[in-house]
């Protein structure tokens, strides 16, 4: 669509329906309820008929998202497909019911309508009477989208309030799809579905008595073609939640979790001590006796604890070697892993994880022998100690420079104050606009000016806060470094201690496409995300080592290292 031409036609009084356009539609409902399904079907049929009845419009098959919330675009596959098709020029206009069907997130509404306009695609919100092809549409869209978003917030609060009151009254919540039960809509009592109850009892027996693993139980149930109450295959988390659920032993249970943020749908899970739980076998007839339930849960807790401990042990194992998680590939920025050399198992080799995973076609970075690294560091440490006074003086002078009062706190305070003032001005600006005291053009210009200034201030504020954080602890680290460099190198353990204290990162790269000629960039006390500069002195050294024999088996080949060592704080 030629947006300029369309706007010109609209400004001349030509109806949108009189302009030749390729038109599609978007429909969405947020639940799987039958009434909503019918509403969705009605939306689709209505807009298809509406578009096809217009002789100036060409119908393009519409897009539908069924049972998906509009607060986020993450899971709206067809919505994102529509955006992609718009980018590829498949239509000129999208017709949708209202802003809340398009998105209930204000930022997303503005973001996507702007993006669509950049592709030459407008959106017609029928019920809201907003056509984004018109220049003044964004103000009304912003206000209406904000109202839709706030309605979601208020609805969320009402639902949360209602659920808390229902818990206080002892109403059984959220059990329409509880496997083994069917909830009586009139009385709220759970009635046992015996066919499903047999499966529940079997699961508890398999786990608590026969001591099968959760994965084995899942495999058994799926192999027999059994489905969950949602008609899906069984999985470990489903079985685990079933075993943990006190309802199966005839207990009322509520307030296990709560949605913290209505926008992100982030859930806070409460500890069991905070649950509302008590015996209620009248309304919740038990499928499992308490003894079997306790037995199953005792085993479940024990196995979870053991698994957690194994994970911790694995983490320790991963970092038990001196160079673990400290050697990185210069080509992929992936970590090197420790491997024993095939022919001489006493000699350890460090190899890029990308190479180990996908082979030499994806990574041809050179490998590094641990014995060669040890020799390099032994020599470097000796050189450090010779020049230790110079190094420490350089670092301390740098620290003293950082200690000078730079007025960071004052600068932070000034920017925070200015940002707050700008937001207050934006609120006042919107009030003036809604009162009709300000034209749309003036509102846009002044509001955009405020937004640009806020963006600049936010960036400055972030940099200042990072700088302030970087200053903390620098003195102690410098003094610690001084003490380390004063230690005498009289054993391998001392060398390892110094390396462990100082070494942050080694970056391995090949020189001139020669794997036997490599560069090591060694960072001591290096912080990956800091913006600190490399400090002098920078120590450079070259090393050469003999390795195994060449392909003819007659001559030993050599590897060369160019080592650049940096001290950073």
Broad shape: extended
Number of distinct helices: 17
| N- and C-termini, Cα separation | 56 Å
Subunit arrangement of the protein: single chain
User: Helix- and strand-based class?
Assistant: alpha/beta
The tally of domains stands at: 4
CATH class term of the largest domain: Alpha Beta
CATH architecture assignment of the largest domain:
3-Layer(aba) Sandwich
Approximately how much helix is present in the residues? 40-55%
CATH superfamily of the largest domain: Resolvase, N-terminal catalytic domain
CATH overall fold name of the largest domain: Rossmann fold
Short descriptors:
17 helices; alpha/beta; five-stranded mixed β-sheet; six-stranded mixed β-sheet; 569 residues; 48% helix; Rossmann fold; Hect, E3 ligase catalytic domain fold
General description of the model:
The chain is 48% helix and 19% strand. The protein folds into 4 domains: 3-152, Rossmann fold (3-Layer(aba) Sandwich); 170-307, Hect, E3 ligase catalytic domain fold, CATH 3.90.1750.20; 327-396 and 489-567, no CATH class; 400-471. It is built from 17 helices and 20 strands. Helix 13 (388-403) packs antiparallel against helix 16 and helix 14 (408-434) packs antiparallel against helix 15. The two termini are 56 Å apart. It has 569 residues and is an alpha/beta fold.
């Amino acid at each position: 669509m030629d947006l300029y031409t369309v706007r010109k036609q609209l400004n001349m009084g030509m109806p949108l329906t009189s302009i030749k356009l390729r038109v599609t539609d978007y429909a969405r409902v947020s639940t799987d309820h039958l009434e909503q399904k019918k509403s969705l079907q009605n939306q689709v049929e209505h807009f298809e008929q509406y578009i096809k009845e217009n002789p100036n419009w060409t119908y393009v098959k519409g897009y539908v998202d069924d049972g998906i919330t509009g607060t986020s675009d993450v899971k709206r596959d067809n919505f994102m497909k529509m955006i992609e098709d718009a980018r590829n020029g498949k239509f000129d206009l999208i017709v949708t019911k209202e802003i809340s069907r398009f998105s209930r997130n204000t930022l997303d509404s503005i973001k996507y309508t702007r993006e669509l306009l950049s592709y030459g695609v407008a959106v017609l919100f029928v019920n809201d009477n907003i056509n984004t092809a018109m220049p003044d549409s964004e103000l009304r869209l912003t206000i209406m989208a904000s109202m839709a978003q706030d309605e979601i917030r208020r609805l969320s609060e009402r639902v949360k309030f209602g659920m808390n009151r229902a818990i206080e009254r002892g109403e059984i919540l959220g059990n329409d799809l509880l496997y083994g039960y069917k909830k009586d809509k009139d009385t709220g009592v759970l009635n046992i579905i015996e066919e499903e109850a047999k499966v529940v009892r079997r699961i508890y027996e398999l786990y608590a008595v026969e001591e099968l693993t959760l994965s084995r139980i899942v495999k058994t149930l799926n192999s027999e073609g059994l489905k969950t109450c949602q008609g899906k295959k069984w999985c470990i988390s489903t079985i685990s939640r079933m075993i943990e659920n006190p309802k199966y032993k005839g207990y009322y249970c509520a307030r296990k979790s709560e949605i913290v943020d209505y926008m992100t749908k982030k859930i806070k899970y409460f500890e069991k001590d905070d649950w509302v739980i008590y015996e209620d076998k009248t309304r919740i007839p038990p499928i499992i006796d308490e003894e079997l339930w306790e037995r199953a849960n005792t085993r479940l807790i024990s196995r979870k604890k053991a698994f957690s401990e194994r994970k911790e042990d694995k983490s320790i194992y991963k970092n038990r070697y001196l160079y673990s998680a400290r050697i990185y590939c210069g080509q992929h920025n992936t970590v090197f892993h420790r491997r024993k050399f095939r022919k001489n198992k006493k000699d350890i080799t460090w190899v890029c994880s990308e190479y180990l995973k996908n082979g030499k076609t994806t990574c041809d970075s050179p490998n590094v022998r641990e014995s060669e690294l040890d020799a390099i560091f032994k020599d470097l440490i000796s050189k450090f100690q010779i020049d230790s006074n110079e190094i420490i003086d350089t670092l301390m002078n740098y620290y003293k420079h950082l200690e000078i009062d730079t007025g960071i706190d004052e600068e932070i305070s000034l920017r925070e104050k200015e940002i707050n003032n700008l937001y207050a001005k934006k609120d006042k600006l919107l009030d003036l606009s809604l009162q009709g005291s300000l034209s749309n053009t003036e509102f846009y210009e002044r509001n955009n000016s405020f937004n640009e200034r806020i963006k600049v201030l936010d960036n400055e504020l972030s940099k200042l806060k990072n700088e302030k954080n970087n200053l903390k602890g620098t003195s102690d680290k410098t003094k610690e470094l001084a003490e380390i460099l004063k230690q005498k190198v009289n054993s391998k353990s001392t060398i390892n201690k110094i390396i462990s204290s100082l070494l942050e990162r080694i970056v391995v790269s090949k020189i001139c496409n020669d794997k036997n000629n490599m560069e090591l960039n060694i960072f001591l006390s290096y912080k990956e995300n800091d913006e600190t500069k490399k400090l002098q002195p920078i120590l450079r050294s070259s090393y050469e080592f003999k390795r195994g024999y060449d392909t003819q088996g007659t001559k030993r080949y050599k590897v060369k290292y160019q080592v650049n060592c940096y001290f950073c704080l």
